[in-house]
Amino acid sequence: MNFVVFDTETTSLEKPFCYNIGYTIRSESGEIFVERDYVVEQIWHNLPLFTTAYYAEKRPIYIARMRSRRCVMEKFGYICAQMRRDFKNFSVECAYAYNSSFDEKVFSYNCDWFKCLNPFDEIPVYDIRGYVHNFIVNDEFRAFCDKNGYYTETGNYSTTAETVFRFIVGNTEFIEEHTALSDASIEADILSVAVNYGAKFGIEYPVMRSVKRKVERVLEVNTREKETFSFPFTDIRISKDKTKITLR
Q1: Helix, strand or coil, per DSSP, at residue 93
Q2: Where are the beta strands (DSSP E) in 124-189?
Q3: Is residue 231 a contact partner of residue 219, using CB atoms and an 8 Å limit?
Q4: C-alpha 179: how far from its chain's center?
Q5: Are residues 182 and 227 both part of a single domain?
Q6: Rounded to whole angstroms, what are the CA distances from 18 to 71, 144, 179?
Q7: Is there a contact between 163 and 145 (Cβ–Cβ < 8 Å)?
Q8: Is residue 158 part of a domain?
Q9: Residue 220 phi/psi, 5° resolution?
Q10: Please, are residues 179 and 9 in contact by the beta-carbon 8 Å criterion?
């Protein structure tokens, strides 16, 4: 089975005008058939819009790549048409992205805006995070995060593509580039590792809202008799009516 891993870079989250699209088409055995990196002409030339992008400072990277023909500027409709041709020519059966719901939203929004066919209308899209959460996040991964302090703002384990790739290659200095083809390539490598760990292509594995970090804490309860009782726990559950607390 052949599949595509794709990524997008956008101007914002609410109105995600797409300025960079990258994808890599591969076989189950790891053969790479084609990789493409596009800058979207309509957004690139709209400087007031482009400069609102979170990674707008990366513009010189795209200029250098376009000059060396490693990246090509095309209109959004042409890019979608080329993707559909590639999917047909290389018998692509499914697609993958990291946090795929966002990238699907990007294509839906831009295809509606530019009035063109969505290349993902005819093939299923799966979230690589589900593969990570169910096959790569193990005790070794948690120990790696604990050792290096890779946590989310809420104190749970980080499972960003950057953190997971650092774990896979054993390189804590790796920095995700946040350009479409570069990110799609490392995400394809992450997917391959998950498959080596037992995951199967073409399955939608559940994505966790967060990978909780078990840190022992202490709940102190003061009684009317001014006695204090301490209860160590790593997880706390409060019933909906707030009348029951369960510690684990």
Answers
A1: strand
A2: 125-127
A3: yes
A4: 12
A5: no
A6: 15, 34, 12
A7: yes
A8: yes
A9: -105, 135
A10: yes
Q: Are residues 223 and 191 in the same domain?
A: no
Looking only at the bridges linking them, the beta strands covering 92-97 and 2-10 are parallel
Record the tokens describing residue 45, joined without a space.
């030339």
> CATH number for the domain including 82?
3.30.420.10
Asked if 232 and 183 sit in the same domain, the reply is: no
192 with 221, same domain: the answer is no
Q: What separation, in Å, do the N-terminal and C-terminal C-alpha atoms of the chain show?
A: 44
Q: Which of 179, 49, 35, 21 is nearest to 111 (CA)?
A: 21
What's 18's DSSP letter?
E
Same domain, 170 and 241: no
For residue 209, being part of any structural domain is answered with: no
| Arithmetic mean of pLDDT, 194-218 | 87
In a domain, 35, yes or no: yes
Alpha-carbon 16 to chain mean position: 16
3-state secondary structure of 31: coil
Of 151, 66, 53, which is closest to residue 106 (Cα–Cα)? Answer: 53
Q: Encode pLDDT of 113-141 as tens digits.
A: 999 999 999 999 999 999 999 999 999 99
- 130: nearest Cα among 16, 226, 208: 208
6-39 pLDDT, tens digit each: 999 999 999 999 999 999 999 999 999 999 999 9
Packing angle, helices 76-89 and 100-114, rounded to 10: 120
